[in-house]
Amino acid sequence: MQPVAIDHFKHYQFPANLRSNGAGAVTFVTKRANLRQDRYDSRLWLWQNGTLQALTAWGELDNYWWQDETTLLLARPGDDTDRARRAKGLPRTVLQRLSLNTPGEAEDFLRLDLDVENIECLPGGRLLLVAVYSARVEAALAEAGDDTDRATELLKQQADYEVITELPVWDNGEGFSSGRRRRLYLWDAGTLTPLTDTLTNVEGLWAAPSGSEAFFVARTFDAVYPIHNRLMRLDLVTLAMQDIGLPAPFRHDFALPLPSGALLVSGTNNARYGVNQNPSFYRLEAGTHTPALLDDAGLYDNWSSVLSDLSMAGPGSHYAQGQAGHWVCTVGHSAHLMRIDAGTGAIAQITQQPGAVQEVVFDGTAHYAIALRGLGGPELYRVDDAGGETRLTELNTAIEQLYTLAAPQPLAFTNAEGTEIRGWVLKPPGLKDGRRCPAILSIHGGPKCAFGPVVFHEMQHWAARGWAVLYCNPTGADGRGDAFADIRGRLGTVDYTDLMGFTDAALAAHPWIDPARLAVTGGSYGGFMTNWVVGHTTRFVCAASQRSIASWGTMALSSDIGWYFEPDQCAADLLDDPAAVWRQSPLKYANNVTTPTLLLHSDEDYRCPWWEALQFFTALRRNGVETRLVLFRGENHELSRRGKPSHRIRRLQELDDWFTRWLDA
User: Fold this and answer.
1) Helix pair 148-158, 135-143: axis angle to 10 deg
2) Using CA atoms, how far apart are residues 459 and 471, in angstroms rounded to an integer?
3) Which DSSP state fits 313?
């Protein structure tokens, strides 16, 4: 058995984009690290009649959709001309058709001068498209009279300038966003018709089984992105659109068309628990769209918030089966497939195994899920209505047989408020009796996310290095309802004491942990909390703060979500109550810090911008605290999960070197 190395993630295949034709066939894409070319390669797979078949070779595959029961549409890079157009900054999507009836290479089907992100395939060969619209690019094309060389020259002339007129200023992973929208288009027999205007952003799309109507979620704005949205009905005969959603203000998360003509809607008005409030469920009656409340308990979210750095699946998915809706939800410290009866509102948890269901589909007879189970990597499972599971793939099963993995040992304690806080401890494999080892307290992001009993590369690697790993879900985490998750205005209070209490409980339960050699780390909210911890205690010999927050004031005015997230999380607006915002900012306590602190950040992280790390670095270095800031160019908030393979390795190497220096001294 081999230890888990720093590049261990290269051994995994990451299934994602799970889809079904609704008639017994299920497809998904796997990604794997290509260290030689420093990228991830993709491959499309088909599960049908009990057999797994590769439909494409390893290479580039952007996305795909079922056009009918036997035909797939693949979004591919195209030829040199297509690549050259995109290199000029001009949009281009190449769709190829792959028929299951005539095995062979996919054939070119359609070229669109759009960056297509989603497709609903309609009867008669029509396509509903969601594509990125850029006011800057469209203006250049219009001025150039569609002369692409001239348009490219105009874009180059503008490249030195960024005109900002909207909030958010930018989006993580996408960059500056003024004038950019996701528009809805209809493609019909070679004719492309835009259906939404240039100020409307389309964020969800669902076609009804009848083929006569579709529904989408939209936000229209010309200055400030609205927190809430509208649910729109599109008549696919007349192309007329109608607002049918819940009364404003309301955030519609998904809308599932039912065979009866009704809609199952999930969403929230955010009135009780702010922007992270769990959704309610409604039925909108057929024809009238009159809402009937089905569930308002605030117990269920609609995504998998269970974290792992060995997954690239989406955080959730949903579908209708008969008169019931199905979705992925975090329950406790696991993510499950859930069902809600659209008639009665009765909710049932289908899957029962601990772990993380991430994506789900229904093929007409059974449910299928991409899920993490135990110490295994992500696999495809068949799930029956009673919750029985059958693993269908062996994408990553051999890894457990070849590498020594530490089994998570559950640990819980009761905090001062009488709430049980649950977590785990990883014991280094091969630790000899009577020996003590250092430990790393790892803090998850969110705060409304969760750790679970699933495999986590960096933690397994640290255990292989001889360091125990402690991790838990403090107050503010997901999976236990709105009241538990609500720490607005209490950042750095009960969450901090929960983390310290869990550390105490781990030391008491496991005397083989050396209390004099503890480290703390975390990313995003976990980075915020790492900064907070070193400003409030000296019990840790070192810290590693990743994609962190130093000041809620600068977050509020520069993050892609900060202008609404900060007033919500701090329960105070920077411009109205700066003292309350400053009180909840780690930078306020930087003069207390003596702990050697490593700061890791990405220069294109617009969720927690890199100057958060810069501020903390400057404060600590000015005070003579041992500190190091490493900035990753070209990466964003997703560095640890989806960054370039070489950057993921360098990130872990920086952490390894820092922990080695201070924990193994």
Assistant:
1) 130
2) 10
3) S
- Residues 6 or more apart in contact with residue 111 via CB below 8 angstroms: 78, 82, 92, 93, 94, 95
Right CATH for 406-550+585-663 from 3.30.70.1230, 3.40.50.1820, 3.40.190.10, 3.30.70.330 = 3.40.50.1820
pTM of the model: 0.97
- For β-strands 597-602 and 627-632, DSSP reports them as parallel
- Retrieve residue 359's tokens: 């994506």
CB distance 335 to 351 below 8 Å? no
Q: Rounded CA gap, 643 and 632, in Å?
A: 10
Strand ranges for 137-237 from DSSP E = 170-171, 175-176, 180-188, 191-194, 200-207, 213-220, 230-235
Tell me how far the alpha carbon of residue 527 is from its chain's centroid: 17
Q: Is beta strand 280-284 parallel, antiparallel or unpaired with respect to 291-295?
A: antiparallel
Query: Tens of pLDDT along 167-212?
Result: 999 999 999 999 999 999 999 999 999 999 999 999 999 999 999 9
Dihedral of CA 389/395/400/401: which sign?
positive
Domain boundaries, the chain: 406-550+585-663
Task: Copy the structure tokens of residue 507.
Answer: 């030391």
Produce one character per residue of 75-94: b if its CB has 16 or more CB atoms within 10 Å, e if not: bbebeeebeebeeebbbbbb
Which two structure tokens, joined as six digits, stand for 362?
């229904």
Q: What is the pLDDT of residues 114-143, one digit of tens each?
A: 999 999 999 999 999 999 999 999 999 999
**Helix 494-509 with 525-534: angle, nearest 10 deg:** 80
The C-alpha R_g of the chain, in whole angstroms, comes to 25
